[in-house]
Q: What sequence folds into this?
């Protein structure tokens, strides 16, 4: 059977492409391997016609309306993206303006978790891309997934909106000073060169705590992290058995000493200068996250001095220095 919709100029489109905008009266005409319910249909995100025409596919569960508590872990979902397409994401407010964290960090991030040239042999030229979003304040937002091809980008054509998800950020009474998740800012080269951030992704990059930074940079001869003009850490070539990667992975350990930006640079084979790929944010650890918020079983202290010593030194017979 072949599905047609003349109003879309769509002839023999894939069944899932039809299901994005059509729910048949008889479920068998979905022509899908797993039949969906009407609830599944209404809970789907907003797709454009370009989503199917460009060959994009959903991999796993996804919601049309997402509610997050302020400061909670980012919401994410996975797309199958044909090789050669360039993806960009934006989190926009109700006025349609892209929003950022106060530090300038991004509120959305797209990351390749399985490239088209690695892993399974039956990926049909598709790579798996995970989309993350982390709203910076309470309100309603729209997460946009924008897609363009290399040829369209070179011709100056604007990216096409393929998918949108409504994201509501709710207030919460608990102290979320620590639970801030500014997402990395990925450059266009990060996607076009099939780079992938391996860690850290599941938790914030905190100051005064050792961080393992691991990234896949295919074709790079060396990579490093910097803050301003200072090099923080040279990343060493390694492998990532967990991700099924033997080459192209660079890993290093460092401890951020101040809150601020951390930039990823790499030099590619045949190129002399380093290219900026990614900007991450280290954030200050909150007092509430300390495992021992109050000392117990010891003498009270003032600015690091035991109280008995402080009282003795600050008495009338001793001058303060």
A:
């Amino acid at each position: 059977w072949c599905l047609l919709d003349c109003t879309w100029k769509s002839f023999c489109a894939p069944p899932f492409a039809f299901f994005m905008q059509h729910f048949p009266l008889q479920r068998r005409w979905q022509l899908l391997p797993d039949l969906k319910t009407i609830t599944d249909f209404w809970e789907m995100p907003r797709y454009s016609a370009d989503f199917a025409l460009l060959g994009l596919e959903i991999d796993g569960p996804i919601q049309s309306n997402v509610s997050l508590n302020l400061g909670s872990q980012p919401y994410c979902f996975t797309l199958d993206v044909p090789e050669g397409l360039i993806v960009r994401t934006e989190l926009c407010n109700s006025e349609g303006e892209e929003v950022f964290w106060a530090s300038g960090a991004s509120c959305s991030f797209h990351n390749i978790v399985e490239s088209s040239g690695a892993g399974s042999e039956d990926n049909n030229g598709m790579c798996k891309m995970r989309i993350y979003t982390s709203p910076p304040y309470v309100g309603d937002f729209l997460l946009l997934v924008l897609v363009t091809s290399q040829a369209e980008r070179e011709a100056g054509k604007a990216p096409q909106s393929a998918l949108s998800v409504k994201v509501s950020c709710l207030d919460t009474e608990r102290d979320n000073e620590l639970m801030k998740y500014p997402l990395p800012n990925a450059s266009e080269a990060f996607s076009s060169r099939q780079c992938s951030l391996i860690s850290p992704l599941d938790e914030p990059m905190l100051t005064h705590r050792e961080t393992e930074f691991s990234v896949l940079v295919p074709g790079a001869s060396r990579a490093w992290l910097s803050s301003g003009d200072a090099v923080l850490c040279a990343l060493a070539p390694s492998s990532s058995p967990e991700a099924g990667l033997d080459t192209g992975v660079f890993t290093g350990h460092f401890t951020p000493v101040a809150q601020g930006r951390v930039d990823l640079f790499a030099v590619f084979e045949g190129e002399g200068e380093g290219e900026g790929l990614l900007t991450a944010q280290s954030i200050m650890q909150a007092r509430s996250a300390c495992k021992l918020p109050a000392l117990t079983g010891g003498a009270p202290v003032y600015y690091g001095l035991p109280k008995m010593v402080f009282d003795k030194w600050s008495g009338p017979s001793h001058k303060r220095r």
Summary: The mean pLDDT is 78. The chain has six helices and 22 strands. The CA atoms of residues 226 and 232 lie 5 Å apart. The radius of gyration is 25 Å.
